[in-house]
Design a protein that fits this description.
Blueprint (H helix, E strand, L loop, with lengths): L7 H4 L5 H8 L7 H6 L1 E4 L4 E7 L19 E8 L1 E9 L1 H6 L4 H26 L9 E3 L26 E2 L5 H12 L15 E4 L4 H9 L19 E4 L11 E4 L1 H7 E15 L6 E13 L5 E4 L3
Parallel strand pairs: 1-10, 6-12, 7-8
Antiparallel strand pairs: 2-3, 3-5, 4-11, 7-9, 9-12, 10-11
């Protein structure tokens, strides 16, 4: 005799519309902000390992034979994917008697719950940029993404200058220009300036108007003179509304191309859904599962402002 739990007659006693809603209307798997900010990758491993390789020194004048330059190892980061699940249960009686399609909506919202969970974690790379505790990564360097004391493995190299991507000033034209200048002084692991192009501002909703005025005004911002606005059209603006859930004053400047090279989002298992019916109770169960992680390979792509 067939197992009652797999007998399709019992499944057919429930409303077939819920299956369609469950599998078809769960929404996009990744939030648009994650797609915009991260280098989204798939993974087929239990964990990922990121390892930096150092810069190459300048060319030297040829005197007889080629001078071969040393290269130094960078820092190692281990990224471990975590599992996430959620589910809902619906009684048989409620499915039979419900008349206003509310239950259909609740089933469909399980997919939205998955997308929203990922969005929250996507935001944390920036919201927690000033903390050395990471959601998925174990970082050998041991300091926060935005820090005024970054390190290098290059023997004997001073990190006094060029290893700082952390400021505490409130958003203003003066602060943005100071952050740009700081970013231009960031150096590689051997102390050489890199080609930093801080071309994008990332701000919470509360700073959106100030940031828009900064990059859109024809005249100099917050002054009575008619000087041309140095910032007009200079930066791309990304308003990350969920940053407001963590802090309404912190803001960021990034080199967009470098960010997409250094900030990784891993989809180990994309969101998948299952459903079943409990034979003893006729309760219908819907569940979702995914595995994700994120991490940064290097910090040389942004300046972050933790406003005090």
């Amino acid at each position: 005799m067939a197992s009652p739990l797999t007998d399709r007659q019992f499944v057919r006693l429930l409303d077939d519309r819920l299956d369609e809603v469950f599998f078809m209307n769960h929404g996009a798997d990744l939030d648009e902000n994650i797609q915009t900010l991260y280098n989204v990758k798939t993974s087929n491993k239990a964990w990922e390992e990121l390892f930096g390789i150092g810069d190459i020194p300048d060319f030297s004048e040829l005197v007889g034979t080629i001078t071969y330059s040393p290269m130094y190892p960078g820092y190692h980061t281990k990224v471990e994917h975590k599992e996430f699940t959620n589910g809902i249960q619906i009684t048989r009686k409620l499915i039979d008697d419900e008349r206003y399609d509310v239950i259909e909506g609740r089933v469909g919202r399980l997919g939205e719950s998955a997308r929203r969970t990922k969005e929250k974690y996507g935001c944390r790379a920036f919201a927690y940029a000033f903390s050395n505790t990471f959601d998925f990564a174990t970082a050998e360097e041991g300091v926060s993404l935005c820090n005024d004391s970054h390190l290098t493995k290059t023997s004997g190299l001073s990190t006094t200058t060029g290893f700082d991507n952390y400021v505490t000033t409130a958003f203003s034209p003066v602060a943005v220009e100071a952050a740009r200048l700081l970013g231009n002084k960031i150096r590689s692991d051997i102390g050489e300036r890199i080609d930093m192009n801080l071309d994008t501002l990332i701000v919470p909703d509360e700073l959106a108007q100030d940031a828009w005025e900064l990059i859109s005004s024809a005249g100099k911002v917050d002054t009575d003179n008619n000087n041309a606005n140095w910032f007009k059209g200079k930066y791309r603006l990304l308003i990350y509304k969920r940053l407001s859930d963590y802090d309404t004053n912190n803001w960021y400047m990034v080199d967009y191309n470098k960010m997409k090279q250094q900030l990784y989002w891993y989809n180990r298992i994309p969101t998948e859904f299952k459903n079943t019916t409990d034979f003893d109770t006729f309760i219908r169960k819907y569940a979702g599962y995914f595995r994700i992680s994120y991490a940064h390979k290097d910090w040389r792509w942004l300046v972050g402002a933790e406003v005090t």
